[in-house]
Amino acid sequence: MKIFLNKAIPQVGMKILNDSNNEIIIPAKENISDVEFLKYCKNADVILNVGGNKLDKEFFDNCPNLKAISLFSVGYNSVDIAEATKRKIPVGNTPDVLSRATSDIAFLLMQSVSRLASHNFQKVKDGNWGSFDPMENLGQELYGKTLGVFGLGRIGFEMAKKCKAAFDMEIIYHNRSRNEEVEKELGAKYVSFEELVKNSDVLSIHANFEAKDSNLFNAEIFAKMKPNLIFINTARGGFQNEKDLYKALKNGTIWGAGLDVTNPEPMEKSNSLLQLSNVCVLPHIGSATIEARNGMAKIAAENAVSFTKGEKMKTCVNPEVYI
Ligand code: DGY
């Protein structure tokens, strides 16, 4: 079969693909246009997709030959899963292997914002060290504070464990369903969305993004938060309304924000959030460790190859296609 990859992946995954009995197609240049992407996909049986290309109904209509999708990500919001399922196209993703790395970035952002670290680093780089001042550069401590986790799956659990171990934080969470393991292990408390918003000192988003969640964190929600709230998002930028977030940060409605994902991506250099001292933004690097990316490459390659051998993908977001 023909497997199309829009970008090369770490060697461990390339080896699995190259050792398989398939034709592996990779564009010669690193970044291809949407038109070129579609052209390659039209000729492929399987695509291994790196990044957030929209794989929607129109895309599927244009690629009638396509039989399987293997995503190089745990998130699958770029794919119309219902449409894929209707066409019996399995969609693989890469869970677990990036949970630690992504939660590390959430934890790092929380600390960076609570102690204004990236802002102060920028000051040093700008030759603006300043002088010791008892009232300047004051952060807030996290000991004993409340972490609110929105979407407590594998990544949220890792974040909660770190916050409990490092700062003895209370854990509250809101999720589609109760997570008894985390309640038992960390004494976490399940709360309504309203309670999560109202009672968190740090609110960290770890949910899978769906269209209905677009701009969920907006002016109305920020207004209900504590003034010392640190807003962390390492999931998908679509959750936040950035104009409202800017106003909430500028007016002191909330205390700070750490974002690894923005709305849209990439964030424009002119985005006013970047002017604020209480904001730290990273360019979607949650899973960017050697260990996590090797793990993702292995799973994504195995998912693609197992389809070509007539086997089920090990990690499939729409397993009902196999029934
Ligand atoms: C994921 O795996 O979903 C990461 O956010 C990269 O897209």
Question: What does this entry show, briefly?
Answer:
The protein is of the alpha/beta class and 323 residues long. It folds into 2 domains: 2-97 and 290-322, NAD(P)-binding Rossmann-like Domain (Rossmann fold), CATH 3.40.50.720; 99-281, Rossmann fold (3-Layer(aba) Sandwich).
General description of the model:
The protein has 323 residues and is of the alpha/beta class. The chain folds into 2 domains: 2-97 and 290-322, NAD(P)-binding Rossmann-like Domain (Rossmann fold); 99-281, NAD(P)-binding Rossmann-like Domain (Rossmann fold, 3-Layer(aba) Sandwich). Helix content is 35%, strand content 14%. The protein contains 12 helices and 12 strands. It has helices at 11-18, 34-42, 57-62, 81-86, 99-114, 117-125, 154-167, 180-186, 193-199, 219-222, 242-250, 290-308, and strands spanning 2-5, 23-25, 46-49, 68-71, 91-92, 146-150, 170-174, 189-190, 202-205, 230-233, 256-259, 279-281. The strands form 2 sheets. It has a 7-stranded parallel sheet, sandwiched between helices. Helix 1 (11-18) packs parallel to helix 12 and helix 5 (99-114) crosses helix 7 (154-167). The longest helix is centred in the last third of the chain and has 19 residues, at 290-308. The protein is globular, with a radius of gyration of 21 Å. The two termini are 23 Å apart. The model has no long low-confidence stretch (mean pLDDT 97). The site of (2R)-2,3-dihydroxypropanoic acid has 6 residues, from loops.
